[in-house]
C-alpha cells in the first residue's frame, strides 16, 4: 500500500495545536489516515497506543497524590466527586470535543466515499492516534506527550488529580 503524504499546511496546523513538530512525517500521516487505503488498519494501531500513552501521562501525575482509585480534585485542595480521571479526560466525549475545538477534525483523512461531518468517535480516535504518533516520534518520551496534551487543552500544567 502506498504511503499517505500529509501536506505542509496540515503539518503546521497539527504542530500549532499540539506544540510538537514531527521528525518523521510518516507518523503524523498514519495518525490522520482513517481510510485503511494506505495501511490495512488505518490509524487504529496508533490510536490504541495513544490511548495507553494518554492513560500513562494522566496516571503518572495521579499516582503520587495518594488519592484512591478514581478520585480527582475539581477545586483547589478539596476532594472531588470521585470521577475517574482517565474517563473524564481521556474519554471519547472529551477527546472529540478537543478534536473539534482544535480543528483536528478538518485534517482527518477520510475515505473518498465519505461525505459530511466526521463522527465524534473517529475524531476521538484520531486525537488518540496523534498522541500515539507523538509518543512514537518522540522516542517514547511521556513528558513530550504531557506537553502535547497540555497544548491540546486536555490537561493544564497545574492539574491536580
TrEMBL record:
SUPFAM superfamilies: RNase III domain-like (SSF69065). It holds the Pfam family Ribonucleas_3_3. Residues 11-139 form the RNase III domain. This is RNase III domain-containing protein. It comes from Cryomyces antarcticus.
Amino acid at each position: 500500500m502506498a504511503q499517505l503524504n500529509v501536506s505542509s499546511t496540515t503539518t503546521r496546523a497539527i504542530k500549532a495545536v499540539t506544540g510538537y513538530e514531527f521528525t518523521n512525517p510518516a507518523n503524523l500521516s498514519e495518525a490522520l489516515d482513517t481510510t485503511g487505503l494506505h495501511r490495512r488498519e488505518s490509524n487504529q494501531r496508533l490510536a490504541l497506543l495513544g490511548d495507553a500513552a494518554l492513560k500513562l501521562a494522566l496516571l503518572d501525575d495521579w499516582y503520587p497524590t495518594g488519592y484512591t482509585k478514581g478520585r480527582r480534585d475539581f477545586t483547589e485542595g478539596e476532594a472531588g466527586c470521585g470521577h475517574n480521571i482517565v474517563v473524564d479526560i481521556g474519554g471519547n466525549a472529551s477527546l472529540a470535543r478537543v478534536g473539534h475545538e482544535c480543528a483536528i477534525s478538518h485534517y482527518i483523512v477520510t475515505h473518498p466515499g465519505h461525505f459530511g461531518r466526521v463522527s465524534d468517535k473517529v475524531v476521538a480516535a484520531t486525537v488518540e492516534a496523534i498522541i500515539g504518533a507523538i509518543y512514537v516520534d518522540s522516542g517514547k518520551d511521556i513528558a513530550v506527550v504531557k506537553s502535547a496534551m497540555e497544548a491540546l487543552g486536555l490537561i493544564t500544567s497545574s492539574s491536580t488529580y
